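pls design
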């Protein structure tokens, strides 16, 4: 029998690049989780916008169990039926004509950036290599993607970094105009910056990027790793904005927790990835693809996508109700069910304190930087769970505010 493991086991055997919570979840169902002690939590985190159909969705577990009894892995020496079905669904429901499968958002973005440089090389020669991205962006943790992401804290100590990268202010049209030129091979942008603070792009900004890329023969890449697969209220956010990229990356919710990612593009651009130029041992895994195919089938319905907007309104109203009592939020913002509440006053830069306190009240929420609470529940979270989660958040805020007030009332 295996020896029991606890949170302390992490400190004993795991590389210390994470600082996980003090409790260990062991079971999930719908929008609720339970830890080793049996304590229940409402899940407003969804594994960082991953379990968009909740935990243990019966239709997903059914197709996975069926595939487990058929075929686990082949490698890309062969193709497989689930991968082909998933690719066909993606090309039928998006702008894309070709799909590349891999395992994570970072891998999808790595593939997109490599493809953009290869495409520029094939069509314009070796001098068109510039990549423009946004400050406070997040595109993954490989050396290439973390360098393209505009957050220096993630590249410190890893130099020398890949070159010919230019980071500009998000939503700044003038900065885009100044940075994108004949030497630019690609522009990469998140339609909604997630890790950077839950900041939606303006339609005018994305339109300007499209215009400038067309003008300078650069490829426009949309990183929809977090906002994609229904979280915006459309299957992909580019559809809601009405701006079509040349390449789109998708991961997180695509597998509802089973590792899978995709890079979507056109026939013309895909042609630069000839045999041998890129690959992935596990990309297109049959088990991952059968789950992802069912995820898309379940999410890409009028009922689910319309429900995202309804839940957005309920959460926004709940956060504004809390703020009316306690005044801790400077702004509530976001798109669909990727929502952020920027903190102010005594709680400025204390988002992590609220996350830790909320867990004690049985609520899982996230941060987006040090000063924004991030709320990313399941797209189908029952309204009762949503309201219970908001009630637990209010109880958390009330407790923290009372502690601040008590401390302020003490004599100097």
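designed seq:
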């Amino acid at each position: 029998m295996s020896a029991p493991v606890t949170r302390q086991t992490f400190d004993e055997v795991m590389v210390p690049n994470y600082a996980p919570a003090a409790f260990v979840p062991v079971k999930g169902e719908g929008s609720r989780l339970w830890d080793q002690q049996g304590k229940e939590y409402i899940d407003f985190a969804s594994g960082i916008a991953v379990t968009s159909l909740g935990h243990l969705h019966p239709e997903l577990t059914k197709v996975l169990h069926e595939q487990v009894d058929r075929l686990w892995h082949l490698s890309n020496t062969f193709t497989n039926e689930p991968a082909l079905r998933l690719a066909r669904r993606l090309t039928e429901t998006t702008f894309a004509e070709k799909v590349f499968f891999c395992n994570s958002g970072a891998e999808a973005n790595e593939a997109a950036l490599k493809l953009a440089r290869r495409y520029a090389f094939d069509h314009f020669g070796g001098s068109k290599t510039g990549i423009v991205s946004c400050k406070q962006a997040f595109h993954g943790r490989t050396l290439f993607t973390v360098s393209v992401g505009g957050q220096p804290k993630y590249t410190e100590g890893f130099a020398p970094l890949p070159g010919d990268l230019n980071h500009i202010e998000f939503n700044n049209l003038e900065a885009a105009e100044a940075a994108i030129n004949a030497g630019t091979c690609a522009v990469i942008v998140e339609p909604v910056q997630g890790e950077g603070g839950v900041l939606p792009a303006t339609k005018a900004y994305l339109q300007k990027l499209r215009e400038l890329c067309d003008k300078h023969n650069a490829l426009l890449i949309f990183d929809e790793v977090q906002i994609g697969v229904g979280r915006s209220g459309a299957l992909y956010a580019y559809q809601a904005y009405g701006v079509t990229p040349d390449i789109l990356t998708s991961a997180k919710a695509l597998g509802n927790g089973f590792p899978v990612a995709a890079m979507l593009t056109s026939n013309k651009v895909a042609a630069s990835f000839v045999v041998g130029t890129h690959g992935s041992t596990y990309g297109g895994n049959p088990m991952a693809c059968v789950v992802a195919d069912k995820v898309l089938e379940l999410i890409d319905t009028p009922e689910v996508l319309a429900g995202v907007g309804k839940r957005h309104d309920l959460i926004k109203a709940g956060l504004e109700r809390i703020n009316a009592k306690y005044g801790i939020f400077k702004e509530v913002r976001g798109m669909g069910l990727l929502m952020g509440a920027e903190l102010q006053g005594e709680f400025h830069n204390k988002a992590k304190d609220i996350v830790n306190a909320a867990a004690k009240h049985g609520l899982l929420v996230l941060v987006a930087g040090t000063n924004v609470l991030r709320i990313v529940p399941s797209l189908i979270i029952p309204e009762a769970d949503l309201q219970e989660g908001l009630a637990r958040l209010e109880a958390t805020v009330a407790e923290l505010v009372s502690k601040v007030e008590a401390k302020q009332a003490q004599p100097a």
